[in-house]
Amino acid sequence: MITIKAGWVICSWDQVIRDGVILIEDGKIIDILTQKEYEDPKWKMSPSGRKSEEGEILEKGDSIVFPGFVNAHMHQYGVLSHGIPQSGKVTDFRSFLTDYWWPAVENRVGRKETLITARATMAEMIRSGITAFCDTLEAPCTEEDTLLRQGELIEKTGMRAVVSLESSQRISDENGWRCLEMNRRAAEFFKKRKGPVRGAICTHTTFTCSENFIRRAAEMAAETGCLLQYHLSESRYEPDLLKRQTGDVPVRLYERAGALGSHVIASQCVKVTREEMELLKETGTKTVHMPVSNCEVGGGIAPVPDMLEMGIHTALGTDGYVNDFFTVMKEAFLIHKAARESTDPMPARLVFRMATEYGAEAVGLEHAGRIENGADADLIIYENAHPTPVNEENIYDQIVVYGSSAHVTDVMAAGRWLMRDRQLVTLDEEACMDEMRKCAEAFWQGAGVKGGAR
């Protein structure tokens, strides 16, 4: 048994315990107490009380303990592009893809790059308190076993993850079907292993996939019993193109293809209409908000406050662009206030809920995202080093608005330590980053980049 005693326990977006104690056994939270209850002689004589004295006891002073963050949309390979000079002139979303991202990055990623970037980004994510993530590998030319090797590597670290390979017909129909089959094999492989990693079926967009292709992907997800995920209207490009071609909107196409539902993650959702949001709500389709990367590609600002008000449970993701979840939360808190010229949208406790509970819900983690009896022990221990007092009224603001990954001291997933006293446990961070830098240097040279300049 592991007992954690801390100044604050944030159980969820609507429950905070001052001077709390968390008991963990076999990867599960078995009790949550106040320190007064913990010291009660009657409780000390209970079965849990006696066992707690025999196990490990962590005295964490005035630290804050809260649920592990869930990064609901991630591209681990994306770190390869951090700082890479762009090839071609990028002026809008379409040119970002055709003149830069597809030829210089995606088409050149293979198994080697996938595994090296997986190690490096897991180190980044653990440092900012991420315990689970949903990855989309965009590497249509990669080796057949890449997803399997990536998932096995993730399993060794103890992080929870969903792995998938983005499938589309932009290179060829044959390549698209090949990628779908690679997704299916990975989903079946990890389902049998019953470990912390699962597979998903993944497509790209309505402008790189036909309706029939999307329909078959949805059928494959249903047959395999796994998640289906895709990018939805990341900019005006997709809905404008589909409207010109068919007079329709993307979500209607997904509805016809059977690609909406509670097992579906629609990421981005920057340019969705009210009608489309109603369909997402009616079908229970999950959505993920990437406020930082949406700025980078010039896609716009997603109508997330509207989706949340409608009851669409929207999670947060890094998109592989900036993998620090404190940065993502802060941006989600701020950007909608600026866009709407109001301080009302996106209060801190709601952003916290998106980062934890809604993220767990999106990726299918039934017992994560909250600290409660019976939940998986996915936890962050956070040093209370704020220059102003923390109290029950401001604790969510202190984490979401003023928080920093520098104050994350310990991270646990399913009762397994991923970081202790600021040291990664399951990864050699220095070796990971050294390997990452060498990989990026070689990758950049292959793209025509030398010495950091084109």
What does this structure look like?
The protein is α/β, with parallel strands linked by helices and 454 residues long. It folds into 2 domains: 2-67 and 378-424, Urease, subunit C, domain 1; 69-362, TIM Barrel. 41% of the residues lie in helices and 21% in strands. It has helices at 35-39, 41-44, 47-54, 93-105, 111-127, 146-157, 173-193, 211-224, 237-246, 250-256, 274-283, 291-296, 304-309, 325-340, 348-355, 357-362, 395-400, 429-446, and strands at residues 2-12, 15-25, 28-34, 56-59, 64-67, 69-74, 130-135, 160-163, 197-202, 227-232, 264-268, 286-289, 314-316, 379-382, 408-413, 416-420, 423-424. The strands form 2 sheets. Strands 1, 2, 3, 4, 5, 14, 15, 16 and 17 form a 9-stranded mixed beta sheet that branches. The chain has an 8-stranded parallel beta sheet with strand order 6-7-8-9-10-11-12-13. A hairpin with a 2-residue loop joins strand 15 (408-413) and strand 16. Helix 7 (173-193) runs parallel beside helix 8, helix 10 packs parallel to helix 11 (274-283) and helix 14 crosses helix 15. It is globular and about 70 Å long. It starts with a strand and ends in an 8-residue tail after the last helix.
Short description:
This protein is of the alpha/beta class and 454 residues long. It has helices at 35-39, 41-44, 47-54, 93-105, 111-127, 146-157, 173-193, 211-224, 237-246, 250-256, 274-283, 291-296, 304-309, 325-340, 348-355, 357-362, 395-400, 429-446; strands at 2-12, 15-25, 28-34, 56-59, 64-67, 69-74, 130-135, 160-163, 197-202, 227-232, 264-268, 286-289, 314-316, 379-382, 408-413, 416-420, 423-424.
